[in-house]
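Sat 14:20. Reprocessing the chain from the morning session after the first attempt stalled halfway. Input below, unchanged.
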Amino acid sequence: MAETKATARAIEMEMRRIETQQANQHVSFLCEFLPENFLKSGGDHDGILMLLLLPRIAQKAQLLTSMLREKYELPEAISKDDVVKSHNTDSLSFSCRLTTLLLQLEFRVHQIHHSLSSCNEELFAKVVSHYSESSAHEKSLDFLINLMKNDQLDETISVDPVDKTIHYFQQIFELYLMSMTMDCDLVMADDCRCLTAVGKGLWLDLNRLKVVVDANEKGSVWTTVDEALVTVDSLQQAARKMTVHLPEPNGTRSLQFDVDIMQSMQSHLFKLGKIAAWIYTAAGSAVQHATLQSDAEGISNKKLEEFFYSAHDRVFAHDDAEPFEILRNALKDANTTFANIIEALADGKFDSTRKEKTGNPLAARATKMKASLSEMETMKGKMDSKEEEIMELKRVIKAKHEEISEYHVRVGLMDKKMETAVRDAEDRLNKRQQECDELRMQMKKKEKEYEEGMDALQSDIEALEREKSEMKERLRQHSKDSLLRGLVQRLPIEPLTPTTPVDMGDAPFISRDSAFLLDKNKPVGLDARTGSVPLITGSESEQEKKLHRVPEEFYSAARKLNDLYTELLAECTSVHMVDITSKKSQMDTMKGFVRHQERLVQIQNEMVKVKCQVVDLTANLDIGAVTEGHFKTFPVQLSQKTVDSQLGHQMRVIARIKLPVGKSDPLVLDSTIREVHKYISSLI
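Finished this time. Tokens:
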């Protein structure tokens, strides 16, 4: 019967080997058809290997755990002989320690595998880039499995490679996948298994210490070990209760809790793992020391404390806290936390409905690969159609090439015609160039003459500028009164006739009227040289009063005449220089000259109006009014017309002559125009 089972097992193993070999060969054949980017480092092929690696590591850890449980069974009680003589507890302690590490590794690999199955493609690619490093850590498990196969796995084997593997996957998880949503059912199940393994290891090592300690010397260490055993027993019960409240694998009930609770459980399990390693190291040292002593002797409290402190320095290298205080606080906090979790599980606070799993990134990348392959097929069909179009285009191009050859012949003929036309054009261009050169020489001669003329004109302009400055300086040296007196003295004396025409634009007449109006305090009468006498009308007292009465209009007329004369002088003395090099300046100068002439005519007309106003005021005075004159000519024709309209032409009294007679009153003669002529003829 045993031989039949062995034969069947051998046949089954051989069939599995053949299937595995065929599967590997199948995969290698498929990889031959895949593109190079699929097989490159960090590509889709590494992603597939990474997703296969993680479950394989978890399964190997689970295999080792089950084999250790089968090989090493934990007893219900431990005696001193088991610890000191048979050393069975050493293998049991090593088994508990290795089981704890394998369960922690399995827990971390489960987290990473679940996160990779639901993360995005970018994050998946980042984690897959570490495949080569991750695959190297699988060798530590392979080494342990080989030892277990050869029955060489015992307490002499170091578990540091497994511890390094746990730390490596812990770093991968914290670096990339810490924010991912976890499978709470899987997390809770792994935590329960880890807590159970840690509790068993602590229970075994604490009992080993309790056995080797001297019973007669029970100190603080003994008390701490007893308290720790009670707390460990509570933790084991908590693990069993949590396992009871776990949901079924294929049921509708599921667990859902916050990330803080998950991190709190992991933190306590990490601390408990550290304490288990510490107690394991201290128990090993204590058992080794107890083996060297006699059977009746036990380890003293002081010596056991030294073992605890030595193991603490090896496990907690950078922690300066008191070791036993760390033990009490860690066990107490873990017991409280897991008690609260059990209460929440019992109350159904973590219960939830199971959700469907989202698509993993590998499936998404496979879909893209299929889409790219189908697109490649589509593109291949398009390329085939394009090749047909290219063949058709080649035929068209060949026909066009023949047409182009004909066009080349035509272009050759046109080139010959063009060369002939170019030669003719060059001949005409040379002739035009010669004409242009001649015209350019003539233009240079004219420009030279023009520049010489411009230099001469510029010198004349500068001379005129200097003359203008000198004239302005001379004009400043003469006052307005001297100019007026000079003009009055140069007045010509003409014979007095009623019809003598008066030039309204004559400057001496303007000056004479201005002098007459401005000199308002001059005595009224004939000029002393001519012996003229004033007009006398009415009584002597009234004549004297009226003689010195001058209306205000005379003064305003005099001021206005003075202003006009000043403006006339300003217009006459203003000189504007002309820039003969600019046509615009010449046009502006012509316009200014026209405006200047118009202003002179306007001033003359206004002066004539003022003179007429003066004559009207003089003529409209009462009888006996005095009008100064030289009796040769009137200022304007309007004065003559006014006198003729009042008294007539011949019989009108035009003058009152006063002749002095000793000391008595002067003789007054009213004379007509004829009488005045006689008086003047006699005097001449």
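The longest strand covers residues 653-659.
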